[in-house]
Amino acid sequence: MIVWERRPAPSRALAWATPVLAVALTVLAGGVLFALLGKDPVLAIRTIFWEPLFGPFAGYLRGQIAIKAAPLILIAVGLSFGFRAGVWNIGAEGQYIVGALCGAAAGLALWPAETRWIFPLMVLAGTLGGLVWAMIPALLRVRFGTNEILVSLMLVYVASNLLAWAALGPLRNPEGLGFPGSRNLRQWASSANLELVPGTGLHWGGVAALGAVAAGWVLLARHPFGFAVRLMGQAPRAAAFAGVAPSRVVVLCMALSGGLAGAAGLFEVTGPAGQVSIDFAAGYGFTAIIVAFLGRLHPGGILLAGLLMALTYVGGEMAQQRLNLPAAAISLFQGMLLFFLLATDLLATHRPRWRRAAPSASPLPAAAPEEAR
Amino acid sequence: MDLSAISPALLFASLMVASTPILLAALGELVAERAGVLNLGVEGMMITGAVAGFAAAHASGSAALGFLGAAAGGAALSALFAVLVLWLRANQVATGLALTLFGLGFAALVGQGYVGLRAPPVPRPEIPLLRDIPVLGPVLFRHDLVVYLALGLVAGVWWFLHRTGAGLRLRAVGENHDAAHALGHDVRRIRLLAVLFGGACAGLGGAYLSLVRVPQWTEGLTAGAGWIALAIVVFASWRPWRLLLGAWLFGGLTVLQLNLQAARVPVPVELLSTAPYLVTILVLVVISSGRGRAALAAPGSLGQPFHASR
């Protein structure tokens, strides 16, 4: 039988190789899935992974990848700190929505003024909105010991109801002929978050995402906060002796992830989405969780993982149009990716050893000597 | 606004029906968590059960076979979780989330062919005299079989956990897996069975939505019911009878909110719809703080990975 033996130290090489292995396995399993659906697997995989990068429409599609990757990376960098410290903010989707709502409301309150200070003000309002929304589960956990997974998740449903209410009520465009949805923020020069360099898809959200990756890298590797986060996740007792205050880490991690998610929502509502509408929330907050894990909770890895995940979105849309593939196939694909990643994680910390069946087949298993872990 | 249109008896009758799916899913999760496994994939297993149950019922024309298929579908998905968590030692939180994403995608994909079809009817037992009792009759004795099955299951789980040797072993594994292992209990086998039971129950709960409540297949029809089920388990502090109370409370809130909408209470529908979620949070805060915490006996090994040294 195969016995998994703990490595003396986790293999660094394998820690980076397993995400690649997981992607390869997902492609294989995805091929089988497409074949079962009656589609040509090679064509499907080619459409998803190759066409957006090197196909005939690559010039346009590469920009789309950057647009989709920006919010994913921005949110995932924030989440990764919490996940390292054992702070499970599952409600980034809600913080993303509330950030977009607060930012849009702050901007629309000043409509139709034309000054360049409106956009920065909206970014600030969006960031604060997401941050405050994340403070609810953070403070409840710190003060009452309430499970932050459940609270942050319940708040996603509250936020999406608030979004519907805002799009139909207070933020509805008064000149919109009764259609739901706010004024178009993309067409208002003060709030428009357009492409900065034509053809690249890079808007202010992309710039913020790159900034978050760089800042997150420094924070994690060189700052006492990064050290506290890593210590609290790996050895909570040692962290306590080292003077790390758990509640401070919880609050800071939630603030970081909530603020970044809120900012991502604001960049989205002023840029690619263009308005507050009922179908504004596209699930970036949930997909970012996969991105964070796929990137090994490291800002550099998250940058690559975010680009890859954006590729599956763009390629998936291509496959939907060309091969008539259902939209749900892509979320299935993303779920599979996370599964394979978690399954292959074991390879980094343990090594397989072939061993003959243990001789302890005696009727008294309790008598077998136990090794200490 | 006309609140007099809300009849308490009718409210309670529809509460029993509305609470059944979350009760079933929560009951399964309670057993899994009592064995020390935190499976956050309830939503994914529920919706897989919903589509599997609908497909099986539609193919066979029998609702009973539908529920059987739903239990099998939910259990199959939970088996995937069990392999990852119990054998490949994956993080339980992340694996549970992956299960939800995977289940939602899988169900939407499989369900495409079933949109707009009708489900075969679920048999309703004719309880001769009891159903004609003036108020209690409609409230208690005019439901479909699954409502009674769920209530029976609550009693069954209580009896199993607190009155049988196997239940004691399951709780031992959940409280302290190292001690249970040292006593010679097969931790992984017991946990596997608990997780499979949880998956089957979540599948049944999902099928109740797609076969009775809605009753047809629509994408994303669970709409967070799985997450509410997870919250109810904490609310019930891992005890079966309190679970029933919790499920009724949340079923009641859903029904009441629908009734308030119908009575034209001057609050936007969207804001009324947030009530069940806000109350869940409130309840979580109350039970996790102060004196409530002493009664909150979470299984000792909940969510922790188990590494048998050999």
Question: In words, what does this structure look like?
Answer:
The complex is a heterodimer of chains A (373) and B (310). Chain A is 67% helix and 3% strand. With 373 residues, chain A is mostly helical. In chain A, strands 1-2 form a two-stranded antiparallel sheet. Chain A is globular, with a radius of gyration of 23 Å. The mean pLDDT of chain B is 84. With 310 residues, chain B is an all-alpha fold. Chains A and B meet through strand 1, helix 6, helix 7, helix 12 and helix 14 of A and helix 4, helix 10, helix 12 and helix 13 of B.
* Total E-strand runs of chain A: 2
Low-confidence stretches of chain B: none
Distance between the termini of chain B: 67 Å
Number of discrete helical segments of chain A? 14
From the structure provided, what is the oligomeric state, counting identical versus distinct chains? heterodimer
Compute the average pLDDT of chain A. 85
Radius of gyration of chain A, taken over Cα atoms and rounded to an integer in Å: 23 Å
> Sheet bearing the most strands of chain B, described?
none
Structural class determined from secondary elements of chain A: mainly alpha
Task: Give the tags.
heterodimer, A: 373 residues, mainly alpha, two-stranded antiparallel ribbon, 14 helices, 67% helix, globular, B: 310 residues, 0% strand
Topology of this protein?
The complex is a heterodimer of chains A (373) and B (310).
Chain A: E1 2-6, H1 12-36, H2 41-49, H3 51-54, H4 58-85, H5 92-108, H6 118-144, H7 148-168, H8 204-222, H9 224-234, H10 236-241, H11 246-270, H12 284-294, H13 299-323, H14 328-349, E2 350-354
Chain B: H1 8-34, H2 42-60, H3 63-87, H4 92-111, H5 136-140, H6 145-163, H7 165-175, H8 177-182, H9 187-213, H10 225-235, H11 240-262, H12 269-273, H13 275-288, H14 292-295
Helix pairs in contact in B: 1-6, 1-9, 1-10, 1-11, 2-3, 2-4, 2-9, 2-10, 3-4, 3-9, 6-7, 6-11, 7-9, 10-11, 10-13
